[in-house]
Amino acid sequence: MDGETANTPSTSELTPPNRTLMGPGPSDVHPRVLRAMSTPLVGHLDPAFIDLMNEVQELLRYTFRTDNRWTIPVSGTGSAAMEAAIANLVEPGDTMAVPTNGYFGGRMAQMATRAGGTVVEIEAPWGEPLDPDDVERALAKHDPDVFGFVHAETSTGVRQPNVPALTEAAHDNGALVIADTVTSLGGVELRVDEWGIDVAYAGAQKCLSCPPGASPLTLSDEAMERVLARDEPPRSWYLDLSLLEGYWGEARSYHHTAPITNVYALREALRLVAEEGIESRWKRHERLSGALQAGLERMGLEMNAPPSARLPSLNAVRVPEGVNDADICSDLLDRYDLEIASGLGDLAGEIFRIGCMGHSARPENVILTVAALGEALDSAGADVDAAAGVEAVQSALR
Ligand SMILES: *Cc1c(COP(=O)(O)O)cnc(C)c1O
Asked: How much distance in Å is there from the Cα of 80 to the middle of ligand 1?
């Protein structure tokens, strides 16, 4: 074009498509959260912001079901909160036990290794939960300092049942427990204190339906004591909890500039959780995901996880014979503005991953998802009955 060079930046208005987000995250953001993000900035040490920090911490304790003093949003996405947990708890020479039953257990192992720890694996196939007996045996054999598990494995659609059996086994063997609750916090029953979880981290953009950027983390006093008694500081300055203590603890002094707008957003998202009530919110996710699963099964598809370990917030369903999963996902995006995802790792090409998280977990979205997926699969030649699927969703929601 005339006068245009390779260096001319685009000045067109930002117009992202209006998607329905039913993938593994992010989920649809509630309009109130978007509004909160367009309110004026204050300084990160402004007395008004300090009040707001206290409110966010109180709301996080409510949502995690904990009294932990050490409950904060970490600057960054879920992986930042994950790294804050692992990099502070694992010291060079420590051993951490991690699960092999999904993608995020693998990430735990990588982070523990980078922290200078030795990793031992507790094995279970992708798509299945950990067996408490295997956990007990592995803990007794390897005597790890830290045991990590994934409460809601987003790569496989598996919810780890019977968490207290795992934490009890860990404590009997002197290990602290780190739980990945990224895809359960605010959507799936999670009771940090009652279940004996020492450290839990989460993300904003899954069941909290908040844009990514400030990520929940909670530590018991005992876990924090272990962090503060380290022989050497963690290798990350940014995520060093003994330094972050200065900002989020009593002193309220500068460490790094908090992502103010993300903290506003998180506060509003957590306020929505508290207004709905945490237990009602868990029930809504179960009800909507139950309807989604009923529709998928009635259509002729098969869920991947065993019924006792199905995760309401992430529904993994088998890709039917003769269908290319990536083609279906892009068809749904193009024709319906609907995002779902395909499988990862061991389950690549074998499952669709359909989220049902936070503000996305609404009847209209579940009906759209089942109708659109049914139609797309039918067009691709799969043996499905889309109409029967939609009917099953409607009768489940009645
Ligand atoms: C999404 C996710 C993470 C990582 O969070 P990011 O926000 O992508 O950094 C970690 N664990 C689980 C189980 C997740 O689903």
From this structure: 9
Q: Is residue 59 domain-shared with residue 96, that is, in the same domain? A: yes
CA gap 317, 309 in Å, rounded: 14
CATH number assigned to the domain comprising residue 130: 3.40.640.10
pTM: 0.97
Last residue of a domain, one of 242, 275, 308: 275
Q: Which of 101, 160, 178, 182 to mutate to test the pocket of ligand 1 (most atoms within 8 A of CB)?
A: 182
User: What CATH number corresponds to the domain at position 291?
Assistant: 3.90.1150.10
Q: What are phi and psi of 227, to 5 degrees?
A: -65, -45
Residue 229 shares a structural domain with residue 108 = yes
Report the separation in Å between the CA atom of 392 and the middle of ligand 1, taken as the mean of its atom positions: 31
Write the pLDDT tens digit of every residue in 87-143.
999 999 999 999 999 999 999 999 999 999 999 999 999 999 999 999 999 999 999
* CA-closest residue to ligand 1 atom 5: 78
In this structure, what token pair is assigned to residue 277?
């009530």
Query: What single string gives the DSSP state of each residue in 14-48?
Result: P-----EE-SSSPPPPPHHHHHHTTSPP--TT-HH
Structural domain ending residue among the three candidates 240, 275, 310? 275
Write the CB contacts of 67 (distance below 8 Å, at least 6 apart in sequence).
Answer: 61, 193
292 is in which domain, residue-wise?
Answer: 278-397
Contact assessment for residue 73 and residue 64, using Cβ atoms and an 8 Å cutoff: no
Specify the number of domains making up the chain. 2
Cα–Cα distance list, 35 to 47, 52, 235, 311 (Å): 22, 16, 37, 30
What is the C-alpha separation between 16 and 30, in angstroms, rounded? 17
The answer to whether residue 201 is domain-embedded is yes
Cα R_g (the chain), whole angstroms: 22
Query: What Cα–Cα distance (Å) separates residue 297 from each residue in 185, 219, 291, 300, 392?
Result: 27, 40, 10, 5, 9
pLDDT in tens, 371-386: 999 999 999 999 999 9
In the structure, which protein residues have their CB atom closer than 6 angstroms to any atom of ligand 1? 25, 77-79, 82, 104, 150, 152, 154, 180, 182-183, 203, 212
